[in-house]
Amino acid sequence: MNWTKAERYRSLRDVSALEMEVLRTKTAASPWRFGYHIQPPTGLLNDPNGFAYYDGEYHLFYQWFPLGPVHGLKHWYHVSSPDLVHWIDRGVALVPETKEDSHGAYSGSGFIVDDTLHVMYTGNHRTDDWTRHASQIIGILRDGVIERRNVAIPSIPAGYTEHFRDPKVWEEDGSYYAIVGAQRTDETGCVVLYRSTDLNEWTFLGEVKTELERFGYMWECPDVFELNGKHVFIFSPQGIEPEGHRYHNIYQSGYVTGTLDLETLVFTHESFEELDFGFDFYAPQTTEHDGRRILVGWMGLPEIEYPTDRYGWAHALTLPRELSLEDGVLKQRPVSEMKQLRTNQFADESGTHIEMISPERYELKLSTSGEDFELELLKTEEESLVIRYEKDTRELTIDRTNAGEPFATEFGTTRTKVIEVTSLHLFVDSSSVECFVNDGDAVATLRVFPSDDEKRIRYVGADATLVGWKYE
């Protein structure tokens, strides 16, 4: 289907109940709907937004175009959870209907002020000649709906283009700070910083000075926080060329660690590292509660067609991951609450050749001696997702060449990470795999679209142990 501008920029307010019911029926017919991941009821999901712990629950919003698997008029959809595992559908929370967000309520963050959940997001407006104008808007969650409070940053400072979005807000020493993704007028990416004491008047402090002076053409979804005495700066740079085994997705997401000086705006940091070496990960956002820093990402990428498109929906969010900074490495582990989803244990076997029937959705732990191995998931007569490790080169490769219906093959069908592997912790859902390496040293996230045939798990290699639990 060729979507016109008029079709892409219809508001949910203009859609009949019958039309939405037809869309829901089409989506429900998809064979690849998830069992335990956050997914859209219809249409397209992208960036996680407004992630915050408030009033006894984690609140999470996401970018949502309700009418189809394309990027159009972005709304915010709302889910909440007491435990990061069981998510309650709260419905649409933000419909763009002011001049400033007439063409989309773009990404933003959540923060608590006076026992109230606030958000700051980017309003996207287009003029009659389709010129973009971005502004940063603050809203408050009341009765499940985000009510606009004020336009906090109405214009773009000199030296930057209208690609100016995705504010992340935090409070420090009595002031609020907002870091915003930006593009300089010479079309290079960066981030800038604002400060406010009252959420009304925001002072432009300037550009954060990093050692990544010319690193892509736009930096999206910035996030800054402290872990283990260091600042961690997460962002999604666009326009990075492949380099060895790195940067093979259409867009990247990664981090640097170091020290951010809020007076000089100088960020002294280590090298940029990718957060995820899989195929389908972008635009992550974090929140903090009870001393834990939790990350959720978009399990997808822009500008790629997915097999679910023909059922009128696209994408999901990753499992929540707990972050820790250990020896300079940002470790990501699945939150321990995921154990609540375990039902019967379907595997507990050791050996050099292990094969078994697999459930549709499951958690699997592989422990090895660090020698060569090959693990096949979603295995049928014709298909399998292959995870292969070669000790001599320390290369862990995920190969989805024959893992079901092909898509995005122009970006390659394998991803490789150089790392010594002793264990894998895998979460398999109806159309996704998340692979945690060595207790969080690395993660790979990927979508797969297998047939509905009976599937098997097969391991061949040095002596290893496989333990697995079925998820309903």
Largest sheet: 10 strands, antiparallel
Shape: globular
- Rg calculated over all Cα atoms: 22 Å
Measured by DSSP, the beta-strand proportion falls in: over 45%
The chain-level structural class is mainly beta
Number of strands: 33
Distance between the termini: 35 Å
Q: Give the low-pLDDT segments.
A: none
Helix content: under 10%
Number of helices: 2
Estimate the mean pLDDT confidence. 97
Q: How does this structure look, described?
A:
The protein has 472 residues and is mainly β. The chain is 3% helix and 54% strand. It has two helices and 33 strands. The chain has helices at 5-8, 17-28; strands spanning 43-54, 57-65, 75-81, 88-94, 105-113, 116-126, 132-142, 145-153, 160-172, 175-184, 189-196, 203-207, 218-227, 230-238, 254-260, 267-269, 273-274, 282-289, 292-299, 313-314, 316-317, 321-326, 329-334, 342-357, 362-368, 373-379, 385-390, 395-399, 414-418, 423-429, 432-437, 442-447, 456-471. Strands 24, 25, 26, 27, 28, 29, 30, 31, 32 and 33 form a ten-stranded antiparallel beta sheet that branches. The protein has a five-stranded mixed beta sheet with strand order 4-3-2-1-20, with no helix packed on it. Strands 13, 14, 15, 16 and 17 form a five-stranded antiparallel beta sheet that branches. The longest helix has 12 residues, at 17-28. It is globular. It starts with a helix and ends with a strand. The model has no long low-confidence stretch (mean pLDDT 97).
